[in-house]
Amino acid sequence: MADPNSPKIVVRMYKTGTGDFFLLRIDKMDGKKFNILLDCGSYKFDKTRLDEIIDDMHALTDGIIDLLIVTHEHEDHISGFETAKDKFSKLITFKNVWFAWTEDKDDPFANDLREHHSKIRLAIYNAYEKVSKLMDNENLRTLYQGERNYADIKHLKETFISSMDWLNSLNYVTPPAHQIAGTTMVDKFRSWGIIKDDTVVEFREPGEIYNGFSEIEGIRFLILGPPKNLKDLFDEGKTDDYYKKREKPSGFNFEFIDALVNDKEGTAISYPFETDYIVTDFQKYMEKYTNQEKWRSIESDWLLNVGNLAIRLERCLNNTSLAFALQLKSNEHVLLFTGDAEYGNWSSWYNKLFWDIQTNGITSQRDINYLLKNTVFYKVGHHLSQNGTPKEKGIDLMTSPVFAAMVSLDLDIIHPKWRNTMPCDYLGAALIEKTKGNIYFSGDHNKIINNIQTARVNISRKNIDQINSVCKPFLDKNFVEVEIN
């Protein structure tokens, strides 16, 4: 039953495909709305639809976004700001913008982390270029042509190049000339005209409570992540931390990074082999090393490890997501937004992270268990993949009898290589059971439910009917929305 003393929050998820684009409208003291925009991205935007959505948002908000929250630097979360930068700049005014501490140029650890990510991007780009050239090199065909598995070897490298195409796009991996040292998302958003001279830019850190918006004094923001240590940022968790995976976990080879960027000075990381074997000129290398086994093992095969490297970069960037809880003070209900946070981010919330929360005039120290117990709305992490929501440290603790969820997943607009993890059938079935069918999707909900209904899970007819009931009013609209109070 609705609390008459609690502000109403309308959460609107725009249908842009597989990617996050959320508008939150909160009752203000003067009866108007306080508007929060959370990300704007998708895998492959329909520019016409995006323009229509921005027009809709302009009419709904009078062109004023009181707070823009940018979770992390992935295409499916920020690409819309660049794609529609002219329209955003012309129609929408952003009064405040929040980023995670990772984008703060005054934070030494953040600067080191960005430099590390730039180094990884350079390594990935160099490996991608090398393998692409090897595919067209006559020497490769000469060496492998006579082997029975030549077709398999050629297919492997073609698959590698295809995989790098989508990972490079997702991670904004571009030629080295475009990798400007020290560039932050703040710099990018300024260049796109989203952040202007009078925009207030702030960086949020885990453990913070923010009550600074007097217009919505019934709301508090509690910052969960990202964590401020490398261990958590690179922590993928173990198999039993999640619902059963559909893919093998990747490894991470730090030596491989240095070999590719050829950074011989000032590094404490060794190369994976003697420096004499580092290839700088392919033709000279072929003249020096004619033994086929040496050529294959050193130049070709080890380069394929870059697939693991790119996946780990993606997952580390996911762990840099600005994760937060928005809480209604009157009834302690929580709306949980985790971006694409993976296990390391989630797990860090249990590492002595507390918030001093005042309820009925009494201040108590609260932890993540309290927030998850009071969660009544969850923006499902990482498009319903198994690595976006832990089991024991996540969904199992969301026990509110009033619970709704939104999933930014569209099976018609998704990279084929994501289909083996999105949606996770176990997680999908658990969320449907938790929400009693009060779950909304950015894509065709029937296709997604059919995909979730594998031999491993069971979804009740009652819950399927409820999903149809809540999604049906939005079939002909470019959004779905739910009211929370």
Can you describe this structure?
The chain is an alpha/beta fold. The chain folds into 2 domains: 9-104 and 184-226 and 320-484, Ribonuclease Z/Hydroxyacylglutathione hydrolase-like (Metallo-beta-lactamase, Chain A, 4-Layer Sandwich), CATH 3.60.15.10; 109-182 and 244-314, no CATH class. The chain is 37% helix and 17% strand. It is built from 17 helices and 18 strands. The protein has helices at residues 47-61, 75-83, 85-91, 108-136, 138-144, 150-170, 185-191, 230-233, 254-261, 282-288, 292-301, 306-319, 343-348, 368-373, 425-435, 445-452, 461-471, and strands at 9-14, 22-27, 33-38, 64-65, 67-69, 93-94, 96-100, 200-204, 209-210, 219-225, 323-328, 334-337, 355-359, 362-366, 375-379, 404-407, 439-441, 479-484. It has a 7-stranded mixed beta sheet, with helices on one face. Strands 9-10-11-12-15-16-17 form a 7-stranded mixed beta sheet. Strands 4-6 form a two-stranded parallel sheet. Helix 15 links the parallel strand 16 and strand 17. It is globular and about 55 Å long. The termini are close together.
